[in-house]
Amino acid sequence: MAAPSSKLKKIPGTLEKTASHQQKILRLNGLAAIESCTRTEGASGTLFLEDHMLLFVLEGVYTVRFGTEVHTVRKHHMVLIHKSVAIQYEKSGEPNSDYTLNYMMFFLKDDVIREFIQLADAPSDSAADGTATISVHPIDDRLFSYLESLQPYFHEPERVKDGLVKVKLLELLFGIAERNAGFRFELSQAKRQARRSIADVVETNLANPVSVDDLAYLSGRSLSAFKRDFKAIYNTSPLQWIRNARLDRAKDLLAHSSLSVTEACFRTGFENVSHFSKAFKLKFGFPPSALKQPPHP
Q: pLDDT digits over 169-185, tens only?
């Protein structure tokens, strides 16, 4: 997988603000759906999901990494990702289709999921715990045709009347649930905001450019509760521990790989090379560039 970009995008908000001519967006009453069609042999980055995301691949490949998990989503497949997580992605088109990548993203807020669960009579929250954060499922030709029928709405968003996006989204969810017995249960679990292990959250996102605020949110805690629980485990503040852990990782990468200072900076969660170099020198007593200089004869 290509190295992820250093800038973390919070979606759907960031994508809505920075959409290019290759992306079409439907927005209504807090709901968002995005269609993207482009040609690429490989583009990567990091996303922080503010809402639950349902992504359908119509052409090409969309790869998702979450910690040690790797999920590859191809044509005629969909992926459901719960909110409040940071993921890395890689987008690529198939060589035999001129590297075309075409997909649709639907962002599901808790109130939409709640309404669907009530209408669909889905299992109760208390039925079970431990549902996967990311799940990939196949989609059949009938559902694929339904997705294609939605494309005109993206091309003429000004003609979409009030409430239609929500109706179409609920219709889509029912179409999936009709073909996938476990989908309703997954959605019933998706709306839960359970606390996660601080160690798991921090270690999973150590290389991602996320803030302490983001980590608190990912863990299901308030900022003050996150800092208190973190100090009880690590006996220091989150900011200091994370900075030191990232610098230790950067030093190891610079000493034992061909990565440049800039690449090591972004690979370890820093977003500014100058800030990274100053912090590195303060901790180790020499600049990161010293590890890339050839030894004296």
A: 889 999 998 888 788 88
The answer to whether residues 99 and 39 touch, using CB atoms and an 8 Å cutoff, is: yes
Count helices and strands in the chain by DSSP H and E runs: 12, 11
Q: Token pair for residue 136?
A: 């990939």
Q: Which of 242, 241, 256 is nearest to 291 (CA)?
A: 256
Count CB atoms within 10 A of the CB of residue 124.
9
DSSP state letter for 36: E
142 contact partners, CB below 8 Å, separation of at least 6: 175, 179
pLDDT digits (tens, 9 = 90+) for 223-247: 999 999 999 999 999 999 999 999 9
**Nearest to residue 51, comparing CAs of 9, 96, 81?**
81
In SS3 terms, 76-136 reads as CEEEEECCCCEEEEEEECEHHHCCEEEEEEEEECHHHHHHHHHHHCCCCHHHCCCCCCEEE
**Fold adopted by 8-190:** Jelly Rolls (2.60.120)
Read off φ and ψ for residue 168, nearest 5 degrees: -65, -35
How many CB atoms neighbour CB 150 within 10 A?
19
CATH of 198-292, one of 3.40.50.300, 3.40.1190.20, 2.60.40.1220, 1.10.10.60: 1.10.10.60
Residue-wise pLDDT tens digits, 113-163:
888 888 887 555 444 445 678 999 999 999 999 998 898 888 888 788 767
Burial of 16 (0-12, 13-18, 19+ CB in 10 A): middle
What contacts 24+ positions apart, CB below 8 Å, involve 223-228? 226/198
Greatest alpha-carbon pair distance for the chain in Å reads: 75
Which of 29, 146, 22, 24 shows the shortest CA–CA distance to 76? Answer: 146
CA-closest candidate to residue 1, choices 102, 60, 70: 70
- Asked if 193 contacts 161 with a C-beta cutoff of 8 angstroms, the reply is no
